[in-house]
Amino acid sequence: MSPVRPFLSSKLDGFGTTIFAEMSALAVATGAINLGQGFPDTDGPDVVLDTAIAQIRSGNNQYPPGRGEPGLRAAIAEHQQRFYGLTYDPDTEVLVTAGATEALAGALLGMLETGDEVIVFEPMYDSYQAGIALAGARAVPVLLRPVPGAGYGFHPEELNAAVTERTRMILLNTPHNPTGKVFTRDELQIIADVALAHDLWVVADEVYEHLVFAGHEHISIATLAGMADRTLVVSSGGKTFHTTGWKIGWACGPAEMVTATTTAKQFLTYVNGSPFQAAIAAGLGLPDQFFAGLAADLEAQRDLLEQGLRAAGFEVYRADGTYFTTVDIRPLRADGDGMAFCRELPGLIGVVAVPNQVFYMNPEHGRHLVRFACCKRPEVIAQAVERLRHLASGSR
Ligand SMILES: Cc1ncc(COP(=O)(O)O)c(C=O)c1O
Predict the structure, then answer these.
(1) Which of 225, 251, 285 is the last residue of a domain?
(2) What pTM value is reported for the model?
(3) Which pLDDT score, from 0 to 100, does residue 395 have?
(4) Is residue 3 part of a domain?
(5) Residue 237 Cα, ligand 1 centroid: separation in angstroms?
(6) N or C, where is the chain less crowded by C-beta within 10 Å?
(7) Shared-domain flag, residues 50 and 39
(8) Is residue 75 part of a domain?
(9) CATH assignment of the domain containing 351
């Protein structure tokens, strides 16, 4: 008898159910406050919501054009010009996708050959490794190390050492999930220099582009000299307009990169969300104050969360942007087992967090680190912080 062949393709060996599903289910089962998954608990701007409703009611419910609604592509190009001075042709250099996730998958599947290597900074958003594996390529990690009293950094020599003759691409995420790191201009220049020296492409995941706190600036690597020609910028409306369930994302870059991405993307979803595309176009056209206000509100929530985490006794690594703050749990739990800690926390004090080890190729690097999300209403964060205080006092 021939051996039973598993249903799951070997390409996806090791990719089980995501930790977010497990932790969100735990939150529901225990009634805990969910600071695990990164989605906001308030609605976005009225104009975005109202446009979607009006679009549905006026019959915009069929397939949009393959590359996306022209109005959204134009709005994306205008947004890139307004915030970064980057010029893209909406017809050939902009693609609308089913969230940033599909833009990333399309880019990886559309551009990589079997055996190519992709440099990734770890920890990393969990779809990267799976996307690279599905493309038959290999992820090569460069470690972002926490710096006590500050954020995260990398060693340039480790980045250089990661390049081989098989390296084809650097997959960069700034502002960065899960660390909250916003790459500085100097750091981006180091990455750009490596890309230029070795003729590498860059895929830049910028979904948190508008969630950057005072004293920090989101810089798109595509704005650095020589980089626009080799960079595909990926983003989405989910985080900016509190519409993570709509999954309207995009990719902008040189026409050939966008076409390669489109070629794969058209066989994944083909298209999605026509009424939501028009709504996100309306959101992208909002005045600068909207975008600034978004970051300011989130910063206050970040402060509340970080103070609470510090008061609870964790070592807190400063987040300069995004929804997330990471902590070292070892001051509170000597064995440093973040996975066990996150599984126990909901039952113990009614709060859900995510163990950072799932964001690492070598889970040991993140074993003692845990991520909390600050994208919840201030009163929800205050309640979570109150509960976390019980950890410090040892009471429940
Ligand atoms: C770094 C990063 N990239 C991409 C995504 C996915 O974005 P979307 O929901 O638009 O697919 C997320 C969502 O959490 C993320 O954190």
Answers:
(1) 285
(2) 0.96
(3) 43
(4) no
(5) 10
(6) N
(7) no
(8) yes
(9) 3.90.1150.10
Low-confidence ranges of the chain (pLDDT < 50): 395-396
Domain count, the chain: 2
Domain end position, chosen among 269, 285, 301: 285
Gap from CA of 123 to ligand 1 centroid (Å): 14
Mutate which of 23, 39, 101 for ligand 1 pocket (most atoms within 8 A of beta carbon): 101
What local confidence, expressed as pLDDT, does residue 396 receive?
A: 40
61 within a domain of the structure (yes/no): yes
Query: Given this model, what pLDDT does residue 75 score?
Result: 98
CB 231 within 8 A of CB 221: yes
What is residue 3's predicted lDDT score, i.e. its pLDDT?
Answer: 73
Q: How many angstroms does the Cα of residue 249 sit away from the middle of ligand 1?
A: 9
Give pLDDT, residue 319: 94
**Are 337 and 326 in the same domain?**
yes
Could you give the C-alpha distances from 369 to 92, 315, 338, in angstroms and in order? 42, 10, 6
Angle between helices 70-84 and 274-284 (to 10 degrees): 30
Judge contact between 338 and 200, C-beta under 8 A: no
Q: Are residues 232 and 262 in the same domain?
A: yes
Q: What angle (nearest 5°) sits at the alpha carbon of residue 8, between those of residues 117 and 341?
A: 80
